[in-house]
Amino acid sequence: MPTPQLWKILSSRLAFDHRWYKVRQDTVCLPNGKVIDDYFVSVRPDVALVLPLTAHGDIVMIRQYRHGAQAILLELPAGTFDPSQEDPQIAAKRELEEETGYTAPTLKFLSVLYDNPVKETNRIHLFLAENAYLVGEQRLDETEDIEVVLLSIDDIHQYIAAGYIQVAGTLAALYLGLQHWSNPS
Q1: CA–CA dist 134, 96 (Å, integer)
Q2: How far apart are CA 92 and CA 106, in angstroms?
Q3: CA–CA separation, 109 and 130 (whole Å)
Q4: What is the pTM of this model?
Q5: Where is the Nudix hydrolase domain (predicted)?
């Protein structure tokens, strides 16, 4: 079985350039020699996502409307950042405080995942924040309407099994966090 090969980018241009969204059009040559002149890629900022656990064993989650899905979803606090301008851990701590009013003494790196590597450039940087505690009010952007929800680890298992948690990055962080708590090392 052959080893996968990189595609060669012959040319690239921004087909759509807006402050909220950028789309790049690449002309690529596949390993088999076929040229595709209209491969579109969403150029998106990275995401810092944090799994906060309080000293009482509650996971701090948020519920908010997500227009792309046109649904109110339960997820972990997260936000975008430019990795060339800001450290992922600092972005994660900032987003935790802004979206929930909680902070934590330290954040532990869990993993970096690609969000949708077929058509998007961004990665999700996952962090665990143990001993999270409330320090103040939420500081929300004008587009945010966020409800803070505290769930026990047992509730999380039930919510996942029932399909109440549907955001991929949140599920990945929860599974990594649950694995960490089951096998701390």
Answers
A1: 10
A2: 11
A3: 11
A4: 0.93
A5: 43-173
Distance CA(87)–CA(184), nearest Å, equals 25
Nearest to residue 58, comparing CAs of 10, 25, 102? 102
Q: Domain range holding 116?
A: 46-182
Q: Are 12 and 25 in contact (CB under 8 A)?
A: yes
- pLDDT band at residue 183 using 50, 70 and 90 as cut-offs: confident
CA distance 66 to 168: 14
Whats the size of the chain, residue-wise?
185
Rounded CA-CA distance 139/109 in Å is 24
Same domain, 71 and 156: yes
Residue 137 lies in a domain: yes
Answer yes or no: do 90 and 108 share one domain: yes
Helices (H), 73-182: 88-100, 153-162, 168-182
Residue 111: strand, helix, or coil: strand
